[in-house]
Structure to design on (332 residues):
């Protein structure tokens, strides 16, 4: 360095200075991006549950639930919520904005929202997830007084894979396949007043054909493959196990005693085709009477679209649940 001419040393110094300034700018941009992400996550997080990580079963650490209560003394109608995640992932306490909206809207409507974890396909195959949701319902009903809940007004709500779980659990009252002896209240009633299904699958083997008919890309038509979420959930390629597929399809359990259903789907869904909700609505209204199932399409909405967790749509959901609870109490 000492042998360099003054001009060369000055140029090197200027280059180092420019490099440091560029590095500082990069560090600042990265720091701002991290801060923005942290703010987004924080503002999207739901408030702390009133009762957190409550065990409803003794067979798995996954059998836990969170309870979010509205203001007041109660007892409150109960909405038991099952998250989506291709039967393979997800959590009862998501950090996205939609779940925060879900909790707030239900609490404002006067409902307790209970979000459950359930066994994923990597831990246990079907029917474990459905058994878990039923066990949660039974536990909450048996312990309603402890948590200021109304045992006579219980509804289920699921999104995507969680909607399939909720539909199976809610429509199949008394079906022995879904009884879990490891539940903490196995003798309690498993019946519910209503079910809200958002973009849930109802007939696994029909999905690829429906997607093809809807003009969805070949890459979307993969439900029949051996590594599909449905095949992993059931433990084998679904085209090879039609009897087990039938057990996992809510269509199988539709009957005169089916509770009131609200089925919502996006018209542009190329993950779970909209016809999945239509065929269940048609079946239920045929066997349980017109109006037992309400079908609503959100025009232009895709799978898990933010429109479903918007305030206007959640007001629709709350109104449906209010009517369903009123109907169920009058019929008792």
């Amino acid at each position: 360095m000492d042998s360099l001419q003054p001009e060369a040393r000055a140029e090197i110094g200027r280059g180092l200075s420019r490099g440091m300034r560029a590095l500082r700018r990069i560090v600042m941009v990265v720091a701002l991006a991290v801060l923005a992400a942290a703010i987004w996550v924080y503002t999207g997080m739901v408030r702390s549950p009133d009762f957190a990580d409550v065990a409803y079963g003794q067979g798995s650490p996954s059998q836990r639930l969170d309870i979010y209560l509205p203001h007041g003394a109660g007892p409150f109608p109960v909405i038991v919520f099952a998250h989506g995640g291709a039967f393979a992932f997800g959590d009862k306490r998501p950090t996205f904005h939609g779940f925060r909206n879900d909790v707030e809207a239900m609490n404002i409507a006067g409902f307790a929202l209970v979000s459950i974890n359930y066994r994923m396909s990597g831990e246990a195959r079907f029917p474990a997830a459905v058994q878990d949701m039923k066990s949660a319902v039974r536990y909450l009903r048996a312990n309603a007084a402890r948590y200021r809940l109304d045992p006579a007004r219980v509804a289920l709500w699921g999104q995507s894979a969680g909607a399939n779980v909720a539909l199976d659990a809610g429509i199949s009252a008394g079906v022995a396949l879904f009884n879990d002896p490891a539940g903490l209240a196995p003798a309690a009633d498993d019946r519910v007043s209503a079910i809200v299904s958002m973009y849930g699958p109802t007939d696994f083997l029909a999905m690829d054909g429906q997607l093809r008919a809807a003009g969805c890309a070949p890459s979307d038509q993969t439900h029949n493959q051996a590594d599909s979420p449905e095949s992993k959930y059931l433990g084998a390629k679904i085209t090879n196990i039609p009897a087990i597929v039938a057990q996992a399809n809510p269509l199988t359990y539709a009957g005169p005693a089916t509770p009131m259903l609200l089925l919502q789907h996006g018209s542009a869904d190329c993950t779970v085709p909209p016809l999945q909700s239509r065929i269940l609505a048609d079946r239920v209204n045929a066997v349980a009477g017109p109006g037992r199932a309400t079908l609503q399409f959100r025009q232009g909405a895709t799978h898990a679209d933010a429109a479903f967790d918007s305030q206007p749509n959640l007001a629709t959901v709350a109104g449906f649940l209010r009517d369903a609870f009123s109907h169920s109490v009058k019929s008792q």
Remarks:
- The first helix runs from residue 6 to 44.
- The CA atoms of residues 60 and 205 lie 30 Å apart.
- The radius of gyration is 25 Å.
